[in-house]
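R.M. (postdoc): so does anyone remember the format we settled on? I'll just put the structure tokens first.
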């Protein structure tokens, strides 16, 4: 009975599989492990459930009403992408140069870090939102929702295992990865900026 209802509402395993892989590639949670470790070192703690929940709210909300809201306030995906690129740019500088740009703000800083920049723009960023728009044009809504949930379960697991990754990598390994991924993150920020800034003019 439940299966029949799901199929009637457009439930499709193939669409779920494709949408899940597209979002997985864009979110790239495994590629951001060094960034997560760097944030954890800076703030002292990461809140996996909070991060996944905020990202879920952002992505599901955007899937339903994102384009309409952005249209009402006159802000487009390109503006979001450019804004997000600045956040990623400064994060990359922190990782590469070992400088403090994002200042701590007392006890709330650990909770804030789980939202910005982790939940947004790293997980629920402009790239993910753009992908949702593309998927929405091709796939049924229910399949995209399942894909979002599956991806955020993976995100939650990876965030929960941050301490394990730290032990495996060790201090030297983390230091090296922070520099390497800092450069990669810098390149991503520049690409995100350059590919969207031209759309604003």
């Amino acid at each position: 009975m439940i299966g029949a209802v799901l199929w009637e509402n457009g439930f499709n395993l193939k669409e779920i599989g494709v949408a899940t892989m597209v979002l997985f590639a864009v979110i790239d949670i495994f590629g951001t492990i060094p960034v997560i470790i760097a944030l954890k070192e800076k703030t002292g703690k990461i809140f996996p459930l909070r991060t996944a929940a905020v990202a879920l709210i952002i992505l599901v909300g955007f899937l339903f009403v994102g384009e309409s809201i952005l249209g009402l306030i006159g802000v487009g995906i390109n503006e979001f992408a450019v804004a997000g690129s600045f956040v990623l740019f400064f994060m990359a500088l922190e990782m590469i140069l070992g400088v403090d740009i994002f200042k701590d703000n007392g006890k709330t800083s650990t909770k804030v870090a789980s939202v910005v920049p982790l939940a947004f723009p790293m997980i629920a960023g402009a790239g993910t939102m753009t992908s949702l728009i593309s998927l929405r044009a091709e796939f049924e809504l229910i399949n995209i929702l399942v894909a979002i949930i599956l991806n955020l379960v993976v995100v939650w697991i990876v965030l929960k295992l941050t301490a394990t990754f730290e032990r495996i990598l060790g201090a030297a390994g983390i230091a090296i990865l922070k520099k390497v991924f800092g450069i990669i993150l810098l390149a991503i920020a520049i690409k995100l900026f350059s590919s969207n800034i031209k759309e604003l003019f």
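R.M.: ...and that's the designed sequence above, right after the tokens. Also worth knowing: The chain has a mean pLDDT of 81. The chain is about 80% helix and 0% strand.
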